[in-house]
Write a structure and sequence with these properties.
7 helices
């Protein structure tokens, strides 16, 4: 994943395990792609389901890509399951990415 050097180990762990970085894959597909680069994974994702295809359209897989996808998925969930976060800060808290807002404000 590109662009993670400026984050702590704990923050990198949060990016790795947040909603936007997760993709539902079969066990066999996940095992075969586990250690490949994003460029190699994209080739496989282009033939996958809608969510795989959407990820394959990203030029690079960065913290910004993960946050964008996370927020899009939350928006989808809110719309389809009729619930609402009270603020954007609550979304970042739910995603365990509160630090991302703080880092973005500092830059």
């Amino acid at each position: 994943m590109d662009g993670l050097k400026k984050y702590t180990d704990q923050q990198r762990h949060c990016f790795k395990n947040t909603l936007g970085n997760l993709l539902p894959l079969s066990k066999s597909v996940n095992s075969s792609l586990k250690n490949h680069s994003f460029a190699e994974k994209k080739e496989r994702y282009q033939q996958g389901c809608k969510s795989e295809y959407e990820v394959s359209l990203e030029p690079n897989w960065t913290p910004e890509s993960i946050v964008k996808r996370s927020l899009n998925l939350l928006d989808f969930m809110q719309e389809h399951w009729q619930f609402k976060f009270s603020s954007d800060n609550d979304k970042y808290k739910f995603l365990n990415l509160e630090f991302y807002i703080e880092n973005t404000r500092k830059e």
